[in-house]
Amino acid sequence: MDLELAGKRVIVSAATRGVGRAIAERFLDEGATVAICGRRARASEPNAADPTVHSNPLGGDGVEEALAALGKRGKVHGAVVDCGSYDQVVQWVNEMAELMGGVDIVVSCASALGGIPRSRHGWDINYNTDVLSSVALWDAAHKYLKAAAPSAFVQLSTITAIENHTFVGSGFSYGALKAALINYVHQLALEYMSEGIRCNCVCPGPIYLKGGSWDYIDRELPDYYAANLARQPAGRFGTPEEVSNVVAFLASPRASWITGVNLTVDGGFSRNVKY
Predict the structure, then answer these.
(1) How many whole angstroms separate alpha carbon 256 and alpha carbon 242?
(2) Are the C-beta atoms of 39 and 81 separated by less than 8 Å?
(3) pLDDT digits (tens, 9 = 90+) for 105-126
(4) Which letter, b or e, does each residue of 167-201 get, where b requires 16 or more Cβ atoms within 10 Å of its Cβ?
(5) pLDDT recorded at residue 49
(6) Which stretches of the chain score pLDDT less than 50?
(7) What is d(CA 172, CA 166) in angstroms, rounded to the nearest whole number?
(8) Which neighbouring-strand residues pair with 38?
(9) Rounded CA separation 209/216 (Å)
(10) pLDDT value of position 118
């Protein structure tokens, strides 16, 4: 099925690696022009992660390496951006909109993930990176999305937002603030459908990729890894491509009558009935 994404101008935050990278790849493969951001210019630079966060040290490509690889698929722009900074995100969106001549689709992927300390500082990390980065994306992109309508805004959330899914000792801020994002995007959906802007969430379950969070968990918390794998009906975790396929469809004109949805992509991992 042709998703009618050729020629669309797409912004994807936090897209140098993992699910964000797969989303950027999918849009490029569909013929869209894509703008990405990441925290480091090069893979050789020190990790910018907060040392109090118990999570994957997030190696992998910086913006320069990602642009070199993605450029083989299509037209791509990129910049180094700290998504925990509202002002940096707004500036980046405006710069990318000028380069691309507008914005048709925004995908918000930035996250501090779940290994957050149980402290005020931990809440600040998740709030700034997960929530305010999304707010900044919307605030900056709204005028471009309105001008380009029909257009779309897609937020990446997590199944941790819809049911309890934490490891012992991890913070409570990740799931709580990802749940807040689902509510926020639903409000956007109702408010701005009249302008031709559709707003939806995607909630992935555990996603495995080499060098990713669940690869790290397999090494550092093997019992927790095994327990989560045992919950998967298919006996495996999801792949980034299985998420990016859904995001591309939701953002595409083929999903023109879908807005305000929180779509779970977890292979049956979560147990709640999804009315």
Answers:
(1) 21
(2) yes
(3) 999 999 988 777 888 988 999 9
(4) beebbbbbbebbbbbbebbbebbeebbeeebbbbb
(5) 59
(6) none
(7) 8
(8) 80
(9) 10
(10) 85
Domain ranges of the chain: 9-209+239-265
C-alpha angle 157-244-34 in degrees, rounded to nearest 5 = 100
Beta bridge partners of 76: 34
What are 144-199's pLDDT values in tens digits? 999 999 999 999 999 999 988 876 667 889 999 999 999 999 999 999 999 999 99
Phi-psi region of 260 (alpha: psi -120 to 50; beta: other; left: phi over 0): left
pLDDT of residue 158: 94
Q: Which of 174, 192, 216, 225 is catalytic?
A: 174
d(CA 273, CA 246): 20
Secondary structure (3-state) at 64: helix
Query: Which pTM was predicted?
Result: 0.94
Q: Is-catalytic flag, 192?
A: no
Return the closest-CA partner of residue 17 out of 73, 82, 81, 63.
Answer: 63
pLDDT at 77: 98
Check if the beta carbon of residue 146 is closer than 8 Å to that of residue 195.
yes
Pair 58, 85: CB distance under 8 Å: no
Query: CATH second-level architecture of 9-209+239-265?
Result: 3-Layer(aba) Sandwich (3.40)
Question: How many other β-carbons are positioned within 10 Å of the β-carbon of residue 207?
Answer: 21
Q: What is the pLDDT, as a whole number, of residue 43?
A: 83
The radius of gyration computed from the CA coordinates of the chain, to the nearest angstrom, equals 17
The b/e string for 26-57 (b: 16+ C-beta within 10 A; e otherwise) is bbbebbbbbbbbbbbeebeeeeebbeebbbbe
